[in-house]
Amino acid sequence: MEKSLLLHLSMVFLMSISIIVISGSTISSSYTLVAQEEINQQQSQPLSIYDIFNKTENSVVQITTSTPPSTVPNPDRQQENMTALGSGFVYDNNGHIVTNNHVVANAKIVDITFIDGKRFTANVTGSDVYSDLAVLKIVENFTQDELAPPLTLGNSSELRVGDQVAAIGNPFGLEGSITTGIVSQTGRLLPLEETGFSVPNAIQTDALINPGNSGGPLLNMEAEVIGINTAGIFPGSIGFAVPSNAVKRIVPVLIDTGNYTHPWLGMTGGPVTSDVAQREGLERDFKGIIVDTVVKDSPADKAGINGSVTNQYGERLGGDIITAVDGNPVIRMEDLISYLETERSVGQNMTLTVYKDGKTIDKIITIGQRPHPTPYLAEAPQPSP
């Protein structure tokens, strides 16, 4: 009897110890979870505008280019070089600076100036007129202490309409200026007049982007670069930026080879509007891209894609209607161009689902290389992939 009682008390005592240990472990785990949650909250806490500027200002540079005048020389007056100002930012620790292609234009050597006054000479090591991106490389000897740290590239595909952003650059030569705003929209097509093509997935923002801001960073509230400020519409507050994911894809190639090869189909088109649907006898809510023009001997032409024709009354009729690419539905040219740029490359095959005369068929197209800009491309009526 006494032994049973002692055994029972021992078991109770051991259970009590176990409960204390388990409770202690539970308390410890709870404290760990709370601490980790506080750390996560601190890490995701957006920075103030001041903190963003203070963290990035030293890594943003002013770019000065000097190019000969393009006009016919006048023997009665001395011709002076044309000077242009733009912005850029430190890309890596090897002296590479990222900016817009139109900032450096045809220049080979440029001057870059940091906000603390340090000045260096750089050459243009790579440029891409189609994405309006360029990479400079400091040619002088420098120490790591002389250069500001590279800015961090964020993920532009994670941007949402309404997200707050900040633009840093040198508008009108006013060095180290910052403007703020929101993401007005994503996935815009940014037409480039000199090429006849468009930059896909451009970021629209109401942060002021003035002449001189071009090439500077568009930053999120974690001080990450999510775009390269490229263009502004005046009057008004509509600015556009090349997305950072394009920078991630294109800039390393520019550093390695000096140029970037873009995929090309060789056609233009637009969305199926209500007027087009009525004209072609389609359902009112029919969705797709109606092909307008097809470049002769282009990949689209070789794949048997047909554009519209003009009748005796000057009306555009017919034209294949693309409803999907590789099984993904498309509604606007933006959808097709974005998919082509981000998911496919030169030499690969792509399947276009085409609707014509009441029938839907798949056409295999072998993607070509985008040609050098020519006048006929610049006159294209719609963005061309």
Secondary-structure topology with pairs:
Elements: H1 2-44, H2 49-56, E1 60-67, E2 82-90, E3 96-99, H3 101-104, E4 109-114, E5 119-128, E6 133-138, E7 164-169, E8 177-192, E9 197-205, E10 217-219, E11 225-233, E12 238-243, H4 244-257, E13 263-264, E14 267-271, H5 274-280, E15 289-294, H6 299-302, E16 309-310, E17 316-317, E18 321-325, E19 328-329, H7 333-343, E20 349-356, E21 359-366, E22 368-369, H8 375-378
Antiparallel strand pairs: 1-2, 1-4, 2-3, 3-6, 4-5, 5-6, 7-8, 7-10, 8-9, 9-12, 10-11, 11-12, 13-22, 14-15, 15-18, 16-17, 18-19, 18-20, 20-21
Q: Can you give the mean pLDDT?
A: 85
| % residues in beta strands | 25-35%
CATH architecture call of the largest domain: Roll
Gyration radius (Cα, Å) is: 29 Å
CATH fold title of the largest domain:
Pdz3 Domain
Assign the CATH class of the largest domain: Mainly Beta
- Uncertain ranges: 5-29, 74-79, 375-383
| Termini separation | 93 Å
Question: How much helical structure, as a percent, in the residues?
Answer: 10-25%
Estimated structural class: alpha+beta
CATH homologous superfamily heading of the largest domain: PDZ domain
The largest sheet, given as strand count, sense and whether it forms a barrel, is: 6 strands, antiparallel, barrel
Which sequence of strands runs across the widest sheet?
A: 1-2-3-6-5-4
Number of domains: 3
The helix count comes to 8
Order of helices and strands: HHEEEHEEEEEEEEEHEEHEHEEEEHEEEH
The beta-strand count equals 22
Overall spatial form: elongated
